[in-house]
Every structure is written in C-alpha cells, then in structure tokens.
Specification:
Helices cover 58% and strands 23% of the residues. The model has no long low-confidence stretch (mean pLDDT 79). The protein is elongated, with a radius of gyration of 31 Å. It starts with a helix and ends with a helix. By secondary structure, the protein is an alpha+beta fold. The chain is built from six helices and two strands.
Length: 164
C-alpha cells in the first residue's frame, strides 16, 4: 500500500515537464505578398503635312505601374510571449523561473514596472513628435513610419494620441 504513492511520485518525476505545454515560438515565415498594378494608355493624334497631303498620325504611350505590399503574419498572444522568452536567453529564463519560485510577488512587480516604463517612454515619444508636428513637416518621415510600423503598433500610437 505504501508503494503506490511512491510509484506515482516516481512516474511524475520521470516524465518531467512532458505534460506542460510551453508557448510555441513563431517560426520565421515569409510575409504575405500582395501585388497591385495600374495600366494607363494615352493616344494623341497629330496632323503631318507630306507634300500636298495632310496625314493624321497617332502617338501612343502606355504606362504600367506595379506596386508591392508585404503584410506581416499576425502572432498569437502565446507566440508573442514565446518570442519574448526566447529573446531573454538561457540565463534570463533561469532567473525568471527562480524569481517566480522564490519571490513571485516581487518578480511580478518587476515585470509590471518594466512594462509601465516602456509604456511611459512610448507615450512621451508620441507626444513629443505630435507637439513638434514633425510628421506634418516631413512627408518622408510620415511615409517611413507608415511603411515600417505594424498594424498593432499603429493602433497603440493612435490610442496614445486620443488619450492626450
């Protein structure tokens, strides 16, 4: 009778973390590519005098504009957490686990403080750019921001603009 709990404990120890699902890391995949194009044809008639005859000649011009838009793949919440954890490195992960085991409240406080620090820095940056009207003065900056920022970043910046 005393052997059953020991056997169960041994089975649990031997399986390790097999029953625990960790967040999946996002595998690098190519972004979705969307092509757009527009075609424009222009024909201009011209009168040409040859000897005593007037001949009508048409000049044709055809323009093709091709555009490329790449949309990044959306990550789930678990994948974003997994990417953050993978960016810590092995020492950071070990320290995070040790922190959650030894002092969970202090570790959560540290993480929340870290989050609020980044949020405050982003808010101050957005407000400074807004007050300087740098986007209105520099069209290239506006185009670069539109091209480089993801949709989630644009949403965060818009929320910050509305709050102020």
């Amino acid at each position: 009778m005393k052997r059953i709990p020991i056997i169960l404990a041994m089975c649990l120890l031997l399986t390790g973390c097999a029953g625990v699902r960790l967040p999946r890391l996002a595998t690098p995949k190519k972004p979705e590519t969307v092509y757009s194009w527009s075609e424009r044809t222009r024909t201009t008639p011209k009168a040409v005098v040859v000897g005593n005859k007037v001949v009508v000649v048409e000049e044709s011009e055809k323009t093709l504009h091709v555009g490329l838009e790449q949309t990044p793949r959306k990550l789930t919440f678990g994948q974003r957490i997994g990417n953050w954890i993978s960016g810590l490195g092995i020492l950071g992960i070990l320290l995070l686990i040790a922190g959650f085991i030894l002092a969970p409240a202090a570790t959560m406080g540290f993480l929340v403080k870290f989050l609020f620090k980044w949020k405050r820095a982003l808010r101050e940056t957005v407000l400074a750019v807004k007050e300087a009207k740098a986007i209105d003065k520099n069209a290239e900056l506006k185009n670069l921001l539109a091209a480089k920022q993801s949709n989630s970043t644009k949403k965060i910046v818009d929320d910050i603009k509305r709050q102020s």
